[in-house]
Write a structure and sequence with these properties.
- It contains eleven helices and 15 strands.
- The protein is of the alpha/beta class.
- α1 packs antiparallel against α8, α2 runs parallel beside α8 and α3 packs across α7.
- The relative contact order is 0.17.
Length: 388
C-alpha cells in the first residue's frame, strides 16, 4: 500500500492513502460483479422488452435470475420483481403504485425516511389527492406508541424504513404490521430496505407489500429491484410497461444486480458478523485514542454496518472535510442530506438541539474494510479533533 507524507503541521505521518467508511452511501464495486457485468454485456445485448430473438433470450435469462433472487431472500414465489436503475427510481415506483392502488385515505410515514422516499410520497399523494401523515420521532427513533395512535380506519398505507439511513436504527417491522392488522386491516406496507436487504434479516413475517434493493449498497455498479406482493403486480407492470414510469434497466445491469443480491443473501451471516467485529475494533480504537464520542442509539437495535456518533462540540461536516487530505471518507449524515445547511433532519426530528444536529458522524462498513483501517482511522480522527 502506498503511504502518504505529512501534509500539514501536526498531521499523522505515514497515513494510508485511502480508508473508505461511507459504505452506507455506496460500497466499492465487487471485482467479481464487474467481470459478470462485462460477460452479460457481451452475451445479452438484446432489449429484454423486445420480441426479437436476442430480446427474448435476454428475457428468459432475466426470468431465471428473478426466480433465483426471490428464492435467495426467502420471498414467496408469488412475489413480483421489477428492475430499475437506482434505488430512488424504484422507491418512486413503489410510492406511485401504493397511491394508485389505495386511491383514498391516508399514507402514514415518519420524519426519518430517506429523502428519496419522502419526496416520492409527497408527489404521489398530491397527484392522487391522498393525505400524507407524519408520525413524530423520539430520541431513539420512531415511537411505536405514537405510530399506533395515528393509525385508524383512514390509514391506507404505511411507508417506513427498516434501517434508518443515517443512525442505523432498526425499526421493528413486525410490530408495525401488527399495529396495521389490528387498527387498519388491509393497509399496504411499503418498506425501504435499502440499508438492510442482504445485510440483516428482512423480517418477512411482517408481510411487506413492497421491498427494495439497491445494487450500489451491495457491491454492484448500479441497478435496483422492487419486490412487490402479487396483488400489486399488475399496477406496477402498467406503470413500467405502459406509462414508462422510471427508466428501463439494461439487461446486463439487471442480471448483475440480481447476481449481486443472490451473493449478498448467501454471504449475509458471514458479512454481518464481520461488520460487528469491525465496529467493536473501531469503538475500542476510538477510546484508546481519547475519543469518547457516544453512540447515538446506544442500547437500542442498530445495524452492525453503521456506527453513528455524536461528536459535539465538533461538527460532523467539518470533521469529514478535515479527513479529506488523508483520503478518508465518512459522512455527517445520510448521503443525500450531508450538506443540509440546517443540520441533520434526522437528528432534528429526534429532538436534538440545533447545535447537536450538526454534530453527527456516520461511519459505515463493508467486507472490504479491515481492522487495521479501523485502528488507523481512529488515530487520524483524534489528530483532526486536536487540530479542530
Amino acid at each position: 500500500m502506498r503511504m502518504r507524507k505529512k501534509c500539514c503541521p501536526g498531521a499523522v505521518k505515514n497515513v494510508p492513502m485511502s480508508i473508505y467508511l461511507d459504505n452506507a452511501a455506496a460500497v466499492p464495486c465487487d471485482p467479481e460483479l464487474m467481470e459478470f457485468l462485462l460477460k452479460c454485456t457481451r452475451d445479452y445485448s438484446g432489449n429484454q422488452e423486445s420480441m426479437g430473438f436476442h430480446g427474448s433470450r435476454a428475457a428468459r435469462e432475466i426470468r431465471k435470475a428473478s426466480d433465483d433472487l426471490r428464492s435467495a431472500f426467502g420471498f414467496d414465489p408469488s412475489v413480483r420483481l421489477f428492475f430499475g436503475n437506482t434505488g430512488t427510481e424504484v422507491l418512486a415506483l413503489a410510492a406511485e403504485a401504493v397511491c394508485r392502488t389505495a386511491r383514498r385515505g391516508e399514507v402514514l410515514t415518519t420524519p426519518l425516511e430517506h429523502p428519496a422516499l419522502e419526496f416520492a410520497l409527497k408527489r404521489s399523494c398530491a397527484r392522487h389527492g391522498m393525505s400524507l401523515k407524519v408520525c413524530p420521532a423520539g430520541r431513539y427513533g420512531v415511537s411505536l406508541e405514537k405510530f399506533e395512535s395515528m393509525v385508524n380506519e383512514k390509514t391506507a398505507a404505511a411507508a417506513v424504513h427498516h434501517v434508518q439511513s443515517e443512525t442505523g436504527g432498526i425499526l421493528d417491522l413486525r410490530k408495525i404490521r401488527d399495529i396495521l392488522d389490528r387498527k387498519a386491516p388491509g393497509a399496504i406496507l411499503l418498506t425501504d430496505t435499502m440499508q438492510s436487504i442482504g445485510k440483516i434479516p428482512l423480517a418477512l413475517e411482517a408481510r411487506p407489500d413492497f421491498t427494495v434493493l439497491s445494487g450500489q449498497k451491495l457491491g454492484a455498479p448500479g441497478g435496483a429491484v422492487l419486490f412487490c406482493s402479487k396483488k400489486f403486480g399488475d399496477t406496477v407492470h402498467a406503470l413500467r410497461a405502459a406509462e414508462h414510469f422510471g427508466g428501463r434497466c439494461p439487461a446486463a445491469m439487471l442480471l448483475t444486480v440480481a447476481r449481486c443480491g443472490i451473493l449478498a443473501a448467501e454471504k449475509q451471516p458471514e458479512i454481518r458478523d464481520y461488520a460487528r467485529k469491525l465496529k467493536a475494533v473501531l469503538l475500542n480504537a476510538l477510546r484508546k485514542n481519547g475519543l469518547a464520542f457516544p453512540e447515538t442509539l446506544s442500547g437500542h437495535p442498530v445495524s452492525p454496518f453503521i456506527l453513528h456518533l455524536l461528536t459535539a462540540p465538533y461538527q460532523g461536516a467539518i470533521l469529514t472535510r478535515a479527513l479529506h487530505p488523508y483520503e478518508i471518507s465518512t459522512a455527517p449524515g445520510s448521503a443525500c442530506e450531508s450538506e443540509t445547511p440546517g443540520g441533520s433532519p434526522a437528528l432534528t426530528a429526534m429532538g436534538f438541539s440545533k447545535r447537536d444536529s450538526f454534530c453527527g458522524l456516520r461511519l459505515s462498513f463493508w467486507k472490504t474494510n479491515t481492522a487495521a483501517e479501523m485502528e488507523r482511522f481512529a488515530e487520524i480522527l483524534a489528530e483532526c479533533v486536536r487540530r479542530y
